[in-house]
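In the design runs reported in the main text, the only information available to the sequence generator was the tokenized backbone. The following block is the verbatim input for one such run; it is reproduced so that readers can re-run the procedure and compare outputs position by position.
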């Protein structure tokens, strides 16, 4: 698990068909040799978490890739939950 930013946390806007959601990165984590990112909405009332494959292109550029395989998404979500449970202990 890696911290993305040492100073100010950036706001990332996710664009969906039904509107935009402003999010902050929570952390990047590895699952089976692939990096994934967890993003949380800046709206304090939301309990949503968005998970994407994370690809760092260089120090200033990155991309989020949708996890289209439902089984893989379930596995990545389970790994995210495991990490969250470990950090709570």
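Verbatim output:
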């Amino acid at each position: 698990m890696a911290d993305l930013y040492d100073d100010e946390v950036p706001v990332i806007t996710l664009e969906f068909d039904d509107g935009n959601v402003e999010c902050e990165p929570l952390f990047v984590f590895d699952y089976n040799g692939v990096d994934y990112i967890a993003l949380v909405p800046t709206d304090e009332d939301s309990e949503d978490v968005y998970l994407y494959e994370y690809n760092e292109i260089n120090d200033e550029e990155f991309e989020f890739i949708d996890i289209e395989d439902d089984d893989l998404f379930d596995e990545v979500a389970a790994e995210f939950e495991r990490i969250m449970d470990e950090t709570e202990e």
